[in-house]
Amino acid sequence: MKKFKYLPLALAALALGACSSDDIAVSEGGGAGVPAGEKGYVSLAISLPTQPASSTRAADGGSVNLDDGDPVEYEVKDATLLLFKGTSESDATFASAYELDPTVFGNYSDADDQITSRGTLVSEITMPTMATNDKLYALVILNNNGLVTVGEGGTATVGSTSLAGKNFSYFTTTAQSVADAGDLTGNGFFMSNAPLFNKAGGASNPNGGTVSTLAELDKTKVKTDASAAASDPAGDIYVERAVAKVTVSGTPTYSGGNELITGVTVAGWTFNVTNKKTYLVRNVACTPSWWSYNNADATASDKYRFVGSTAVGQNVGETVAEGGSPSTYYRTYWGIDPNYDSYVAADFVVKGGQEIANTALITGTNPGYCVENTFNTANMQERQSTAVVIKAKLTVSGADTDGSFYTFGKDENNNTSTVYNLAGVKAEVLSRIQAWVEANKSTYITSGTIKAENYTVTLSNEEENGDNAGTVTVKSVVYADDEPATITWKESLEKFNTALATQVAAINTSLTINYYKDGYAYYDVRIKHFGNGQTPWSSDGNIGTGSYSGENAENDYLGRWGALRNNWYDINVTKILNIGSPDVPDVTEKWDDPENSYIAVRINILSWAKRSQDAEL
């Protein structure tokens, strides 16, 4: 695990990547409040709740582990402070924006051995004009990747849209188009405020609690003096990364019962069905509210799955009653993306077999990142669910010299008890041809013997530029009469070969030939968010007829599948249960819980958060 040194007055911990129950303490500084329109200084404590130094991993409930991640995921190349004002977060409107100096954030290296849980940053601002009951709020964006631009006089734009007069909800409800996660990580990982809840979940019902995303600032702590502001932070801000992280690990064994398969290795993986739309800040404006949803069969520590049970910290800027103290905040574990309750094919990147086959796969322990992709239970289907496509090399006894082999079946896994090499496929084709010939030879010859060795069978993958994995066809079967004196044709050899072409078409209709080029098979694993511990599910025979139907579907299964930002999904491949698909499986409208599984996985989730799943292929 990588850890990072503490840098004074630096933003050294920038995402919800680990956990700590330590209280955040601040010292009271001097200075006075700043009138509207005047220059002042505000100090922000930007925090990453980190695990205690005495432990190597912490947990948030029974299903979520917390992990620091990699140094590159903490790098800060630019930072933006956006101020909002209003009587509450829901009506807060944009006030002004400021570029912050990223050089104070420091550099991280593999040699660092500690991680900072709190960094303080001081910025000069112009105090906005505010009504008596208005509060001052802060939104911090790190590594904006060109999505947010600060202009003259505290103005700001998102793309070409001015933020003047915009409500904070603009950030959580206006969809941003992206090609892929690279648009959010290319110049550092895009980060923004994390929605936090003021009551614990997990084993406890958080009913009655509220969620906050903007960080309230104490207006009286905007100081005329920078040093005074530095010693007296006006608020605490917790940020999270805008993408989800995935790693694939494991040394699977084959347990499908086919004695011809003698070994299996994972060659690499890539994403499929990735989202092309996202919000700059996570949207948790759920109607109806899901915070108290619980599956009656969930494990006790995970019963209330949408809120964590490990305290993140407090916000010193929060308005509290006299003698009171700021709320204690907890992580939240779901969100609404731009296509949450609808399906538009153009919103997703779906790759076909050859497109993925020609893609540079992610290998070893290297991570991949994807755009947040969540949905309600009505849309919990393959076509809308981000998946990991795993490419595995199967070693098959008797395969061709390059490792290639074949199976038969209308579906890619319909007949995997028997595997064939190229010669075996051609022998099967010839057996069907010869059966037809025996029944019809009197139509074509008057004497002689039609010999099997005189046929030439050609498959489509044997043609030039036709060597693609997947379903192949019989291209042709041609008979060459090498000993014309032995056969008397009723009409001609040409007429016989014309009849063979008709039989080839019939064979291609009745026989599906699956070509596993070089011995590679593909398996798709949809990303499971809450999974079996928090959303236990059994089919009861209802797969394909409304797997998540019923009046309690959202309560019981919402979030079972999906990819949430700032969550790390570690897919551990444990078993190969079947031969798999010769090319990338088609994306369908089937429900996310499949009828058959050809891979066994275990997903662990780190918050970062990290969720791990075993995969049996």
Written overview of the protein:
The structure is a single chain. Residues 1-32, 48-58 and 110-117 have low confidence and may be disordered. The radius of gyration is 31 Å and the shape is elongated. A hairpin with a 5-residue loop joins strand 8 (148-150) and strand 9 (156-158). It has 617 residues and is mainly beta. It is built from 8 helices and 37 strands.
Show the helix and strand layout.
Layout (H helix, E strand, L loop, with lengths): L38 E9 L10 E2 L5 E2 L12 E8 L6 E8 L17 E9 L8 E8 L5 E3 L5 E3 L2 E2 L6 H5 L2 E2 L4 H4 L5 E3 L2 E2 L13 E2 L2 E3 L8 H5 L4 E7 L1 E7 L3 E2 L6 E12 L1 E2 L1 E2 L28 E7 L15 E4 L15 E2 L3 H5 L10 E4 L15 E10 L8 E4 L13 H19 L4 E3 L7 E5 L10 E3 L1 E6 L8 E2 L3 H18 L2 E4 L3 E7 L4 H4 L18 H5 L10 E9 L22 E8 L3 E7 L1
Parallel strand pairs: 1-16, 17-35, 18-35, 35-37
Antiparallel strand pairs: 1-6, 2-3, 4-5, 4-7, 7-15, 8-9, 9-10, 11-21, 12-16, 13-14, 13-23, 17-25, 19-26, 20-24, 22-23, 26-34, 27-33, 28-32, 29-31, 30-33, 35-36, 36-37
Helix pairs in contact: 5-6
Silhouette: elongated
Helix content: 10-25%
Q: Given the structure, what is the number of helices?
A: 8
Number of strands: 37
- Characterize the largest beta sheet: strand count, sense, and whether it forms a barrel: 6 strands, mixed
C-alpha termini separation: 28 Å
Radius of gyration: 31 Å
| Proportion of residues in extended strands | 25-35%
Computed structural class? mainly beta
Mean pLDDT: 85
Weakly predicted, low-confidence segments: 1-32, 48-58, 110-117
